[in-house]
Amino acid sequence: MPIEERIMKAALESNSALNSTLKKIIKDDLRMSISEFSEAARIPQSTLYKLLSGNREPNLRTLRDIIEAARTIKGEQISGTFIAVVGAKPVLDTIERSSMKIKGKTINIREYPAASMDEAIISAVQAERDGAMALVCAPIVSTTIGKILRIPVRIMKPSSSVKRAILEAAMKYMDAKAGEAPE
User: Which CATH number does the domain housing residue 44 bear?
Assistant: First the structure.
């Protein structure tokens, strides 16, 4: 089982399972001391010791740092073969291709539908877990998603659809006004 899965499984099981799994991974799989791993993971040594002794529960950011460092050290760095696009269904329906040729390489496009900001954030995290190399999303959630993910996040700028929506809204308003009785 890959290191990431072992850590996540242990973290979901209990703090003591996480502690023993991390100790085993650091010592046996990575063949490092706690201080060496602390430096590689950019986690303060005191924080790591508190986690391993059960005196502190890991937050999500620390858990991600641990997993990323373990992957990098073990040579399991994920190199995704797709770019994730997180958006509302109408936006995703405008995507015409499921892959693109970029610099001679085929890059797949994987869609992650989201009907709310919460769903967009959850979909973005799932896309990263699925191995996305980068992510494209709406501007309204890009700042938050960019702070959470470790992959590049870029903003969709659908200028033509924005212009079209403004035109349609104005036309609808004018049609409604035209149908009103004069005062």
Answer: 1.10.260
Q: Which of 116, 121, 115 is closest to 145 using CA atoms?
A: 121
**pLDDT tens digits along 58-113:** 888 888 889 888 877 776 444 457 899 999 988 888 887 788 888 778 888 999 99
Mind giving me the DSSP string for the chain? --HHHHHHHHHHH-HHHHHHHHHHIIIIIS---HHHHHHHHT--HHHHHHHHHTSSPPPHHHHHHHHHHHHHHHT-----SEEEEEE-HHHHTT---SEEEETTEEEEEEEEE-SSHHHHHHHHHHHHHHT-SEEEE-HHHHHHHHHH-SS-EEE---HHHHHHHHHHHHHHHHHHHHTSPP-
Q: Which domain holds residue 102?
A: 82-156
* Domain-ending residue, one of 20, 45, 74: 74
Average of per-residue pLDDT across 129-145: 91
- Cα–Cα distance for residue pair 121/68, rounded to 1 Å: 20
Quote the pTM value: 0.49
